[in-house]
Write a structure and sequence with these properties.
By secondary structure, the chain is α+β, with helices and mostly antiparallel strands. It has a single domain, classed as Rhomboid-like fold. The protein contains nine helices and five strands, in the order βαααββααααββαα. The strands form two sheets. The chain has a three-stranded antiparallel sheet. Helix 6 crosses helix 7. It is globular. It starts with a strand and ends in an 18-residue tail after the last helix. 39% of the residues are buried.
């Protein structure tokens, strides 16, 4: 399901949310224009679990490649030593949030952030939202770390922090509704808790399915679940205190079909 919009208009201009989208965009453009060094940027600034848990060991990935031989195409494995981290490994828990693995990964994350982030910034305030975003993103990275302690695979993406935004939205706007699109043609309106609840259950189910797996699936499912839970906790902490701003009471109507 792809969210198209919600029915909560933002009360204030989401400076921080747009700033995060701008930073992610600049980082993605740097990856794409790196003259073949996009992979190196990921290796230098992505969060590699083994670098935090075993700092004295080199990070070595096993890469599978299709090779043409006289008898046909065969898949061969080779070892690849990752480029050295450009920062102390713990700092990559932050820098990894601004990198992405491809155009669809980038666009999907930015769209979800655009839909849900402005309303959460309304309630947290600009500074509070920035701190919440970074905090839930770090917690998401740690959630992935503890389930992949010896992984040499770089972890990148804003998904964990955006999951935190979605978890906070669930708590702060329980009566909101979301217009969603299910490709190829279905459009419908759901209560926000239903939409976000389905999303969270899917992440957690996929995370459970990877426990004990010998290889990474390529998706940090536990980062998504961990970030979502951190966002829920953060929202409960500010919802009924002086730290949070008043709820937006306006609603906008969806176009009839």
């Amino acid at each position: 399901m792809i969210p198209l919009r919600d029915n909560i208009p933002p009360h204030s201009f989401p400076y921080v949310n747009y700033g995060i989208i701008a930073l992610c965009t600049l980082a993605f453009l740097a990856q794409m224009s790196g003259n073949g060094e996009g992979g190196s940027i990921v290796e230098q600034y992505g969060m590699v679990p083994i670098r935090l848990t075993r700092p004295d060991e080199a990070a070595v990935m096993t890469i599978q490649e299709a090779v043409q031989t006289p008898t046909g195409i065969v898949v061969q494995e080779r070892e690849h030593v990752l480029a050295e981290s450009a920062l102390p490994p713990w700092m990559t828990l932050i820098t990894c949030m601004f990198l992405h693995g491809g155009i669809m990964h980038f666009l999907g994350n930015m769209w979800f952030l655009h839909i849900f982030g402005d309303n959460v910034e309304d309630r947290f305030g600009h500074v509070g939202y920035a701190l919440m975003y970074l905090g839930t993103g770090i917690f998401a990275g740690l959630s992935h770390l503890v389930t992949n302690l010896a992984s040499p695979i770089p972890t990148i993406g804003a998904s964990g922090a955006i999951a935190g935004v979605m978890g906070a939205y669930l708590v702060l706007y329980p009566h909101s509704r979301v217009q969603a699109f299910l490709p190829p043609i279905f459009s419908f309106v759901l209560p926000a808790p239903v939409f976000l609840g389905i999303w969270f259950v899917m992440q957690t189910f996929n995370g459970i399915s990877t426990l004990g797996a010998s290889a990474s699936t390529g998706v940090a499912w536990w980062a998504h679940s961990g970030g979502f839970i951190a966002g829920v906790i953060a929202a409960f902490m500010i919802r009924n205190t002086a730290l949070g701003r008043p709820a937006v009471t306006q609603r906008r109507a969806f176009a009839s079909r």
